[in-house]
Specification:
There is one protein chain. With about 260 residues, this protein is an all-alpha fold. It has one domain. About 75% of the residues lie in helices and about 0% in strands. The chain starts with a helix and ends in a 6-residue tail after the last helix.
Length: about 260
Amino acid sequence: MNNYLKIWKITALNALQETFINRATNLLFFLGKIIRLTMSLLVLWLIKGQLSSFLTYTPNEIVIFFLTYQFIDNLSQVIYRGVYLFSSLVRSGEFDFLLIKPISPLFRSLTGRPDVNDAIFIIPSTMISVYLVSQLDLNITLTSFLWYLLLLFNSLLIATAMHILVLVIGVLTTEVDGVIWMYRDLTRMGQFPVNMYMEPLRTILFFLIPVGTMFTIPAQVLINKPGQVSMVITLLIGLSSLIVSYSLWLWSLKKYTSTGS
């Protein structure tokens, strides 16, 4: 594990150097992140000011769902940014060199290019989220908060599994861009409680594409609301999704043939 941390540190430093080289481009990117955060805060303000209730939730509770989505989505982007560049590695044949190196090709494919802008941006956005939660009138206990932290980790496992599945598709088809953006669009459905959707979409978002398990269940536990899925099943979904995705990754490597020129 220590070796992998060192490798990630070197990769992150290289990405930081590229950021300083392309200062103007990254400044525009960071500005876009700030605008996105501002729009998110505007949405939260509209929710608190315009809604009296949403399903069985108060406006304050809806804010928790929104902030939970924001945190998990931002964190997974920081860690797994390498997925966005994976298709070019497969098409050019550079993926061959990852396979022969004495480190996990999965690790390099997932974390190969940390996004410094996202890493910097997640600090103020998390601080703002913590401040907003502290101002809300909510029934949060120590037990619910500890369960919430555990379920956040479980959500990260599911996000890891989903990104591995994207890599599997990239190995088999050399196509990643469309798949990763489809994943991003699907996860946006978790900005608000997934139980707002009708069946069978609700069941699909809890079990087949576990968006609800990633975002809705942790928020429900934090505010002491009964969930559609028990915490035990939620944790099993997180662990099993990671095991299945990793098994598919190993299978996809057996199907891989270099496509480089």
